[in-house]
Amino acid sequence: MLKCLRCGRTYEGFKIMCECGGVLEYIGEREGSFKGLLREEFLDVRRYLSFLPLKEEFLPKLTLPITPILGRKIEGVNVFFKLEYLMPSGSFKDRGTYVTLAKLKEEGIREVTLDSSGNAALSLALFAKSEGIHAHIFIPKHTSEGKKRLLKLLEAEVHEVEGSRMEVHERARSFREGIYISHWYNPYFIEGTKTTAYEVYEQIGNVDYALVPTGSGTLFLGLYKGFKDLEALEGARIPRMIAVQGRGYESLCKRSKEKSRLAEGIAIPEPPRREQMLKALKESNGACVSVGDEEIAEAIKELISMGLLVEPTSATAYAAFKFLLEEGYFEKGTKVLIPLTGSGLKSV
Ligand SMILES: [Zn+2]
């Protein structure tokens, strides 16, 4: 069941937002223990089928691997990089796309529209192609040529829009040929990204902090939801959620005048799920940190020296980690999760 976070109205099936304009959240009920609910016969995302709002007969043809974790001790702090960029289309977005595709199949939807700065578009194009679903993708004209070429290779119908990310969003919303499935609103997308928390729990147990690049909040909210499930089922501890934003695009903390150019994937000044994110920050005793291009560029270099080739938006979380480390924010021995969200190979 989908429930509106503004007026409480409920819906069944595939829906992007409430009639009142509020955002929707999927509400599911399950009983048992986390371990008991695992589908241990699978070593991929299907391990978590009992936690996902989808029917097995409509599973996408492509599946998702469990992404590895790389641990490093940095000045006494245990840092765990989760290599989300090793997903099939090179970013964590595949998690949200996976559940969304299953719902589209269940509803018999064959033509869809999405706006994206790149990663969500590539993810949808890859999955849609394998299902024969026609995808209209709205992207900013300044999107990198590499990403554009990839989208065409994946047979998406690309609509380039001159203007800001918000203008791209408006154009896609008013387009009438495909069902609009923006991941900014789509409640099923978050059902997919929450599987990150389950994997982390199976791999390294409880963590103290999660530093997450946060624009529209799809990963931030998914992780938080997954951790809340683990708390309910296992008594696991919810980490302090640190939302990392690009300077000039802060939606959860004070907005800077200077504008980050590098954090393009999270350059979303007015995210529809802002209230929900603020609630998660408060409930988890978290914080919002913003980083600028100089710190991001430095973080990219350091990550490369560790063998981690990620795109600039992903490096924001490590840049924030370095900042907080210098501030003395973390105690020695603390466990810090840093999901590395997108591949550096796509920004070439
Ligand atoms: Zn409503």
TrEMBL record:
Keyword Lyase on entry: yes
Gene Ontology terms describing biological process: isoleucine biosynthetic process; L-serine catabolic process; L-threonine catabolic process
Transmembrane segments: none
Major enzyme class: lyase
Enzyme Commission number: 4.2.3.1
SUPFAM superfamilies: Tryptophan synthase beta subunit-like PLP-dependent enzymes
Record domain Tryptophan synthase beta chain-like PALP: where: 73-342
Record keywords, A-Z: Lyase, Pyridoxal phosphate
Keyword Lyase: yes
Cofactor: pyridoxal 5'-phosphate
A GO term, aspect molecular function: L-serine ammonia-lyase activity
CDD domains, per the entry: Thr-synth_1
PANTHER family documented for this protein: L-THREONINE DEHYDRATASE CATABOLIC TDCB, THREONINE DEHYDRATASE, MITOCHONDRIAL-RELATED
Protein name: Threonine synthase
